[in-house]
């Protein structure tokens, strides 16, 4: 009965414990189970303060809550996690009305920081979409006029040498038109939703990349075969993953020449995970890991911005479009990079 009473707490992204008057665990939500690496059945009846680096902090807060000296008491403490690592967190302790129980909520500081990063990333992607759409339309109309005028001028010119100049204008106008079309691509085509097998998507992308780099590039597949199919736009997801893997392959140019380049695709199922300010019962986690030089420090915080590239001659659109396509599936792309290891992590909700 008590599990049913507290069932709604499982949908909270914060770590939550309900304690009895003596400080023993009556209920632990899924987020707390994940953090401690223990089931709620194992946690029930255990003194919750024993999981704190400084148990006295929680014990004093529980005394205040029992005596109802404050509506809620906040402090900072460290919880011992799954591998006995310390998890710094904000802690809130409050008495539950009329039941004699005490509610303890913990907000891990790292989770706070990650949610802030996700929020900034979403705002950035939305601003990028508006900027790209407006800029592309502003460029497109005069670009057609420039190309048309160059064609008319070419017809009036008799000397072949002079016509070479108009050919340069036409060629550059076509190149810019292709760039504008790529900028507008995510906004032009409607979502084509169907059943998606993520490993078929991975294999399609790897086949394309290995055709381009038949030698010197080793691919490792680390797949979780239990991942179910989900509803999504297969073409968009292929393009998003292809952009990331191609970026990795381009960054590995020197290692490919040396014959020791490696790209790993790893898939896993996450349970009771929060991203995009939503709690999901199940989510797909897809890693693209390479052993290249890493993302240049100067652009590490801006790699999803349009027209930002760490490679000479790069358009700076691949990761922008990948993030847009993944966000259209309510997902998110994150990146961690250091010399010798770059990890792009794609998160997608699962049914």
From TrEMBL:
Domain of life, source organism: Bacteria
Q: Which UniProt keywords apply?
A: ATP-binding, Kinase, Nitrogen fixation, Nucleotide-binding, Phosphoprotein, Transferase, Two-component regulatory system
Cross-referenced InterPro entries, in alphabetical order? HATPase_C_sf, HATPase_dom, His_kinase_dom, HisK_dim/P_dom, HisK_dim/P_sf, PAS, PAS-like_dom_sf, Sig_transdc_His_kin-like_C
Known SUPFAM superfamilies for this protein? Answer: ATPase domain of HSP90 chaperone/DNA topoisomerase II/histidine kinase, Homodimeric domain of signal transducing histidine kinase, PYP-like sensor domain (PAS domain)
| Annotated function | Member of the two-component regulatory system NtrB/NtrC, which controls expression of the nitrogen-regulated (ntr) genes in response to nitrogen limitation. Under conditions of nitrogen limitation, NtrB autophosphorylates and transfers the phosphoryl group to NtrC. In the presence of nitrogen, acts as a phosphatase that dephosphorylates and inactivates NtrC.
Q: Does the keyword Transferase apply?
A: yes
Whether Cytoplasm counts among this entry's keywords is no
NCBIfam families, per the entry: PRK11073.1
- Which residues are in the Histidine kinase domain? 134-351
Which CDD domains would you find in this protein's record? HisKA, PAS
Q: Which Gene3D superfamilies match?
A: 1.10.287.130, Histidine kinase-like ATPase, C-terminal domain, PAS domain
Q: Which residues cross the membrane?
A: none
Q: What is its EC number?
A: 2.7.13.3
Question: By what name is this protein known?
Answer: Sensory histidine kinase/phosphatase NtrB
Specify one Pfam family: HATPase_c
Its recorded reaction(s) are:
ATP + protein L-histidine = ADP + protein N-phospho-L-histidine
One GO MF term on file is: phosphorelay sensor kinase activity
């Amino acid at each position: 009965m008590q599990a049913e009473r507290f069932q709604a707490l499982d949908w909270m992204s914060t770590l939550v414990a309900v304690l009895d008057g003596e400080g023993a665990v009556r209920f632990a939500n899924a987020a707390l189970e994940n953090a401690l690496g223990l089931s709620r059945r194992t946690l029930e009846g255990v003194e919750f303060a024993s999981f704190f680096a400084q148990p006295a902090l929680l014990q004093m807060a529980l005394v205040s809550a029992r005596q109802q000296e404050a509506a809620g008491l906040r402090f900072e403490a460290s919880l011992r996690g799954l591998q006995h690592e310390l998890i710094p967190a904000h802690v809130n302790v409050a008495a539950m009305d009329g039941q004699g129980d005490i509610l303890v909520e913990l907000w891990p500081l790292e989770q706070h920081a990650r949610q802030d990063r996700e929020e900034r990333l979403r705002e950035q992607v939305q601003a990028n979409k508006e900027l790209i759409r407006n800029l592309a339309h502003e460029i497109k109309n005069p670009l057609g006029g420039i190309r048309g005028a160059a064609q008319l001028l070419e017809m009036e010119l008799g000397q072949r040498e002079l016509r070479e100049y108009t050919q340069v204008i036409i060629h550059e106008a076509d190149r810019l038109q292709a760039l504008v079309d790529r900028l507008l691509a995510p906004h032009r085509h409607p979502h084509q939703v169907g059943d998606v097998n993520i490993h078929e998507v991975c294999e399609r992308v790897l086949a394309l990349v290995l055709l381009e780099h038949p030698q010197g590039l080793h691919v490792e597949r680390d797949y979780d075969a239990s991942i179910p199919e989900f509803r999504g736009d297969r073409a968009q997801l292929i393009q998003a993953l292809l952009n990331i893997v191609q970026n990795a392959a381009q960054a590995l140019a020197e290692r490919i020449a040396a014959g020791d380049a490696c790209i790993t695709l790893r898939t896993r199922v996450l349970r009771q995970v929060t991203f995009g300010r939503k709690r999901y019962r199940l989510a797909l986690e897809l890693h693209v890991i390479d052993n290249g030089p890493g993302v240049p420090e100067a652009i590490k915080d801006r790699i999803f911005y349009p027209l930002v590239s760490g490679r000479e001659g790069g358009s700076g659109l691949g990761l922008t479009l990948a993030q847009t396509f993944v966000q259209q599936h309510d997902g998110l792309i994150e990146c961690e990079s250091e010399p010798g290891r770059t990890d792009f992590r794609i998160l997608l909700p699962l049914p």
